[in-house]
Write a structure and sequence with these properties.
Nucleotide Exchange Factor Grpe, Chain A, domain 2; three-stranded mixed β-sheet; 2 helices; elongated
């Protein structure tokens, strides 16, 4: 006769099978967690490397951005040095004026080629987006109210961006 305390063999096999399935599921879950952690760490590392690389590239661009502009201005500086040396013995002021006008035109052309544009404000309506009113004077004619009468400093744009506001005198 069977011992009442004994467990049938099929029950033991089923119990062991359930434990094996649990162990297998736990192993699969652990493997999946490890795989996801590994993917996360790799992605994080790639992003961190990307961030560092773009910061370095940005700083390099900032350092070398002015290089092109300065290269275009260097010939103008050379011309000024030659003009100052040549003007030490020159008595004719007309020749000096012509030389400085040529140098000014060369500087103006080289900056315009880089996108720097001076804008005129005299005779136009005051525009706070591109002008700074440093003083107001009484208008002699009612049609002059709000009109720029004098320009103390020219305004400049680099492309569409104002890099220096025109300093103006406005009639009121």
């Amino acid at each position: 006769m069977e011992n009442p305390d004994s467990v049938p063999e099929t029950d033991i096999k089923a119990e062991n099978s359930d434990k094996a399935d649990e162990n297998s599921a736990a192993t699969d879950t652990d493997a999946k967690i490890n795989e996801l952690n590994d993917r996360y760490l790799r992605l994080y590392s790639e992003f961190d490397n990307y961030r560092k690389r773009t910061m370095k590239e940005k700083s390099d661009i900032i350092k070398t951005a002015a290089e092109d502009a300065f290269k275009s201005i260097l010939p103008v500086i050379d011309d000024f040095e030659r003009a100052m040396k040549a003007n030490e013995q020159v008595e004719d002021s007309k020749a000096i004026k012509e030389g400085f006008q040529l140098i000014f035109n060369k500087l103006k052309n080289s900056t315009q080629q880089k996108g720097l544009i001076a804008f005129d404000s005299i005779g136009t309506a005051f525009n706070a987006d591109v002008m700074e009113a440093i003083t107001h004077i009484p208008a002699t004619d009612p049609s002059q109210k709000g009109i720029v009468i004098d320009e103390v400093e020219k305004g400049y744009k680099l492309g569409d961006k104002v890099i220096r506001f025109a300093k103006v005198v406005v009639a009121q």
